[in-house]
# Entry
Amino acid sequence: MTDAATNVAEREIDRTQMQVSDEVAIQVENMNKWFGTFHVLRDIDLTVYRGERIVVCGPSGSGKSTLIRCINRLEEHQQGKIVVDGIELTSDLKNIDKVRSEVGMVFQHFNLFPHLTILENCTLAPIWVRKTPKREAEEIAMHFLEKVKIPEQALKYPGQLSGGQQQRVAIARSLCMKPRIMLFDEPTSALDPEMIKEVLDTMIELAEEGMTMICVTHEMGFAQAVANRVIFMDAGQIVEQNEPKEFFNNPQSDRTKLFLSQILGH
Amino acid sequence: MSDTHAQTVRFVRQEMMPERAPPIREAGAVKWLRENLFSSWLNAILTLVSLYAVYYILSHVLPWMVFGIWDANSLTECRAVRDELYGENASVACWAVLADRWQQLMFGFYPSEFYWRPVLAVVVFLVALGPILFSGFPRQAIWFSAASPFLMYLLLWGGTIWGPLVVIVGFVIGVVAFQLLAKVAGNIVGGLASIILPILFWLFAAGPLASALAAALPIGLTFVPSDDFGGFMLSFIIGIAGITLSLPLGILLALGRQSDLFIINKVSVAFIEIIRGVPLIVWLFTASLLLNYFLPPGTNFDLMLRVIIMVTFFASAYIAEVVRGGLAALPRGQYEAADALGLDYAKSMRLIILPQALKISIPGIVNTFIGLFKDTTLVVFIGLLDPIGLSNAIRATTDWNGIYWELFVFIGLLFFICCFGMGRYSLWLERKLQTGHR
Ligand SMILES: Nc1ncnc2c1ncn2[C@@H]1O[C@H](COP(=O)(O)OP(=O)(O)OP(=O)(O)O)[C@@H](O)[C@H]1O
Ligand SMILES: [Mg+2]
# Structure
């Protein structure tokens, strides 16, 4: 295996719960998006089934971030259809908020709320969106903070944590909403190498529990270990998608080959 | 040939060094003096020159202040006492003017038998301020703060208690209307109803209702008209009302200016630019003179109220720009994270964006408040008797004709204490809200 895989746990991955069902989680049909006159996403068709772990990769500027940001409507698409969890994304604000509360998102730069403690970061959305009682929300938050292995930091502020810890808090914060789908936008690319592993470990555990995930990442080791599908994007289009093994060992498109040779360094 | 010295490469420490105190030249007062005052020849000379300058000023000002005369009934008397005590033409202050006229400087022409009312209003104000400015008060205390404006109005102006109570009823109608309608017809309908219904109530029902209640149950305090208000009381009323009203209005304007909704955006921009682009004194003249042409004849629209509205508008335009700076300073990620968690606009603003933006804006906001408070002295030009206006009036009397330093020193000192206090509070608040290094 390549050295890009070194960041991923050496341990065996537990695949018992990693099952893809026939239920559609996300349906993107013929979707197009422009930034002004710039055609950033072109005829995107993508069906994600519940339980899938999809890794999206591609060169910088290819539209990966824009694609997953369309799925929870941080960006608006101009053509085509996006249905998440049976709810179609239109300009209806109620639907948008409903989708957003079902879809968790983790950002490259964490985006924790610096004026709130870690615990408050995690309980805010459950209390104000889900109307969970405060006590219960705190219990849930502590549960997930334990899961990402930083319960002792609960009363600190984000500014007092390391990057890796902050990113794990960001994951816990999303999980507190009990999302059915998680989106990751380059969650490890702002981190120092020694912190990347702790975040990837958390993501792997999430995958082991059967979470539906779409991850934009260049951690190919992670892709090989847990993804069931790898999507390669270039120039706003889906150029190639395949199972990880096939994708890495036998890429079809020239663009994919070029990209892989650059990223894997040979 | 190797590329390092054999001796420099290998090193192993045998025993660890204990902690030691720094050398005497590096600690305490000596170090401070050396670093700050005498670090070089130039610095030493500057220090000595400055010391002499400070000495020179103080040696003249301090005796003038300290030996000032407190006991006299007029400037002539004051001078007689001075000549007797310190000799002809000695330079000492005549504080007696303050002793003689402090009531006027404080309260204007407010009836002296009711001085307890403004004093009590100040106490109410300070108590109400506690839960707003500092954490650690019981939660219910905020209700007292909410009721305090009405209480203070009643104390200051007097009249029946029914006026303020009926105004409160209007607010209650607004809240109830919102809660009932928002569930049935949505937030927008509820929001509109919560604004329109109270206004209708105040315009048409409040007056008759208050009069009827007052006729049936005449409870209240003796009415004092605004014309009698003056001195620092006037400055405080205008300043405090302006400050408390301009903050929420300014925040709304800042959000409006950021809004994607065309009309709201343009109205906010126009309001801010027009209000900010014209001197306050022009707005004050507008309030005092021009409005009379536009208002239906016979309406009695209190001048003080008009001034408060103008000052509030003026300050809120500045606050809006300060807050907009704070909003712009927040990274986009904060908005996106709030959105991604499913928080709606109102909640993400209230819980995520505004707390951070306001924290960034604290220095600018307090700066605006201080400016507003000092600008209240401009009302002297439209004939209100603020401390400056009163000092002019005092100097126009035969008793105190010719005195000016003492009055202005006093007025300046009181303003300074208030503004300095606000500045200190803002520093304290900034430190308190500091949450780790970002
Ligand atoms: N708000 C925007 N306005 C205009 N153009 C944008 C905007 N956001 C992104 N773009 C452009 O759209 C293209 C796709 O951006 P996107 O962020 O989706 O790329 P990406 O694949 O995530 O790249 P990276 O790997 O660098 O994150 C880029 O060319 C970018 O310059
Ligand atoms: Mg990106």
About this structure: Chain B touches chain A through 23 residues (CB under 8 Å). The first strand of chain B starts at residue 159 and ends at 160. The CA atoms of residues 64 and 144 of chain B lie 45 Å apart.
